[in-house]
Amino acid sequence: xxxxxxxxxxxxxxxxxxxxxxxxxxxxxxxxxxxxxxxxxxxxxxxxxxxxxxxxxxxxxxxxxxxxxxxxxxxxxxxxxxxxxxxxxxxxxxxxxxxxxxxxxxxxxxxxxxxxxxxxxxxxxxxxxxxxxxxxxxxxxxxxxxxxxxxxxxxxxxxxxxxxxxxxxxxxxxxxxxxxxxxxxxxxxxxxxxxxxxxxxxxxxxxxxxxxxxxxxxxxxxxxxxxxxxxxxxxxxxxxxxxxxxxxxxxxxxxxxxxxxxxxxxxxxxxxxxxxxxxxxxxxxxxxxxxxxxxxxxxxxxxxxxxxxxxxxxxxxxxxxxxxxxxxxxxxxxxxxxxxxxxxxxxxxxxxxxxxxxxxxxxxxxxxxxxxxxxxxxxxxxxxxxxxxxxxxxxxxxxxxxxxxxxxx
Length: 409
Fold this sequence. Notes:
By secondary structure, the chain is of the alpha/beta class. The chain has two domains: 25-82 and 111-243 and 349-403, Alkaline Phosphatase, subunit A; 246-339, Gyrase A, domain 2 (2-Layer Sandwich). It is built from 13 helices and 20 strands. An eight-stranded mixed sheet has the order 7-6-8-1-9-18-2-19, with helices on both faces. Helix 1 packs across helix 3, helix 7 packs parallel to helix 9 and helix 8 packs antiparallel against helix 9. It is globular and about 65 Å long.
């Protein structure tokens, strides 16, 4: 009985229809990001709509983020198929030693196209004659390859999940000639509440419920608009979340005086530049004293991090152990005592950093579970779903082969 009620909420799967599958040029693709929706939240919180979509479609055991497992680098990787060192968004906060400028996720640089490398899926679509709209996705306001989405809205934390869905459905209600074939949507709620209260909190449970209900609202709208035979969803997250504590702080000033090093970013990962240009001396401040962190020169970063080949990557990089935090401020600082309850950015292979991947719709296989996969391969799947020629990227066609009902030949 519970399953029948759930089926009524979600609606029937596309395999129940006798209509022929839509050609790629006639499909609608909706890419949804649920920021920080950890891979195990489906089992932990049992969101009914997302759980049913995962059951009916293709669900990865875990989506593996790029290093560092931060929001902006991973969102750009998802839509370009490039690793952070290649698209240039190497952290949420960074410094460019060539232009001498800084990038912050809360600053105006987010809409400056000079920071953003690669060709995101909306640019690929627009360049190939498709209508592509985007809502709140990180970086969406910046011209990339001198192209923006057909319509877009930059990030706004005040926008509720249902408003995002209603805007998307409004776009899809347009006549076919004016209707987008690509929609890119972003929901921040699980990330916001996860940072503030931790992944096991009632607040995160509430955030999961909010975004799940938004997905149900989206599915209801697709059925109402009679688009469920052509609409396909790829639902992802960018990273997971893990608890941190003021009892697990690594204070950078305990190792090097603040005036001796520029800190480009800190947290799960810290990037430092020597004020006097002496990289060897700065590295020596940490080498052999590693306590719940590891220190690397940029050129010696682990190969599996793919985090060497960009001047925005600082010459000295520290990586904290899972659940520890590299802090610019001493423990006595009031802001340290008021720090977030949880964060991300750690080694992508830490289970707590794992993200979510669900593909649902008539273009995709049904009732399939796939092994953990890196998010660098998603862009090629998006292109193949819509019949687009992908730009050069770092991914391959493994998701195309595993997810599409009829993989591209």
